[in-house]
Amino acid sequence: MRRWRVPIAAMVLLIGAGSSHAQFRDLVNIDWVNHRLSGHVDDYTQNHSADRRLHSPILGRPRDLYVYTPPGYDPRRSYPVILWLHMGYVDEHVFLGSPALVRLDRMILRGEMPPVVVACPDGLYSGENRTGEPHSLFVNGRGGRFEDHLVGEVLPFVTRHYSIRPERQAHAILGLSGGGFGGMSIAIRRRDLFGAVATLASPVNIRYDDARPKGPREDFSPASYRWKEYYDPEEVYAVFYFGLRRSRARKYIEPVFGSGPEVTEIIRALNPADLLFTTDLEPGELAMFCHFGGRDNWNFDAQALSFAWLAASRGVHVELATAPLQSHSIHYFRDNQDEAYRYLGRHLLPPTGPWILAPRR
């Protein structure tokens, strides 16, 4: 019972748990956040008294972005970068409002994580702090070309305005919940840009199904796993409050992928698990990490386990980690980003610069 003691307002941090009353919005004071950090968050949003948004020709409207620079950031050095992709039904405000950012800052100070630049774009369709808006999943969909915005505008903006290492092994993605779908999909398909990816409680196999009675709601078993071959708008995607609330597929699929007979093929082309077989991904080419709660309301734990199992059949390693007793909740996302950062820190090229001493001969 204890794991269900989550304030109703906090449930908006679930991917699509409902309308948002706890969105941080303009209540997040960026000066207060920066006062707590040894690094610094730069503001390219409309959230703090002035409009500093990036104009996006691809999306045809201004877009919000936060950029974190680590303690001691020095433009004479070159740093790795992480694109931080938020979960559904909140926007970029959650990057500032989470204590995970302060913990990252402390990890860098303690040497547990290399200094890294982190960029958090807005992934909601409207871009107007409307937290009930559908999540783009950071892919090109009905509401706009968000993947193109991410790789063609956000990443180039960060590399132009900050000192970023150019190598793909210095570029990573961290995706939370719905942000992890696009994050893993983009990382697999754009290995020319990214060398590592980590997800937390994410739909990395949206075509997960099982031959047993509960189908896609079953725990993962290699013996009964099967691919979902059709789209059912009435399928129950998530269960909350002991089954009193059930979220249906149409709410999340149709704003991004549509509702026609082509939906299954569109999903197949972007689904990370399918991409293990439809791309030329080689073992060791991309560092991949999936973290999940053992009691995930969306059964994303089963999706992560099936994704790793399918990858292993191709000789590709996916590192897994879990919080066995946690559900898809604000507490889960607050508590478990550190492991993802540590994983990425081990697989990113470190900062470089003129301060590095030449090795002795």
- Whole-Å distance between the termini? 62 Å
- State which percent range the strand residues make up: 15-25%
Number of domains: 1
| Uncertain runs | 1-26, 356-361
What's the CATH topology label? Answer: Rossmann fold
CATH evolutionary superfamily: Alpha/Beta hydrolase fold, catalytic domain
For the biggest sheet, the summary is: 8 strands, mixed
Strand order of the largest sheet: 1-4-6-5-9-10-15-16
Structural class: alpha/beta
Q: What is the share of helical residues? A: 25-40%
The overall average pLDDT, rounded, is 89
The succession of helices and strands, N to C, reads HEEEEEHHEEEHEHEEEEEHHHEHEHH
Report the top-level CATH class: Alpha Beta
What is the CATH architecture assignment? 3-Layer(aba) Sandwich
What's the total count of β strands? 16
H/I helix tally: 11
Radius of gyration: 20 Å
Question: Which word captures the global form?
Answer: globular
